[in-house]
């Protein structure tokens, strides 16, 4: 049985550990080298950052399949132009369960919550070299623009902004 729920505070360290594992298998040497990956993980997934995100309205989710946490996601309502969109901040599933529908379930859950919050749609940032772009396109998202964002220490995020309007 698969279900999705908000994370508990004691699971924040597990989400951090899972992010490190997923990034290592998904991004390392494909999108970035190890030095940049560690910089970004430390910036985005330290426990204080996650707690701060939650305090500012970001909702973190876990997906549980066969009684194990197999992925996580986060989203936030009330963002975007006009404050009427939902931003998908994160969507990750463990590599051994890719192509088993868990990412679809997380995306669909966040989309449902966005609609319940009367959002006009969802948007996200995704690296232009990320293999997940096709997944997002199959979920009805379109590339709206490209952005090059300086994240410090000489690193940039070369992203597409993708959007799905309801």
Account of the protein in words:
This protein has 166 residues and is of the alpha+beta class. Helices cover 34% and strands 37% of the residues. It contains 5 helices and 7 strands. It has helices spanning 12-26, 34-44, 47-55, 102-116, 133-138, and strands at residues 2-6, 59-65, 68-79, 85-93, 121-127, 142-152, 155-165. A 7-stranded mixed beta sheet has the order 1-2-3-4-5-7-6, sandwiched between helices. A hairpin with a 2-residue loop joins strand 6 (142-152) and strand 7 (155-165). The protein starts with a strand and ends with a strand. The mean pLDDT is 94.
Which helices and strands, and how do they pair?
Blueprint (H helix, E strand, L loop, with lengths): L1 E5 L5 H15 L7 H11 L2 H9 L3 E7 L2 E12 L5 E9 L8 H15 L4 E7 L5 H6 L3 E11 L2 E11 L1
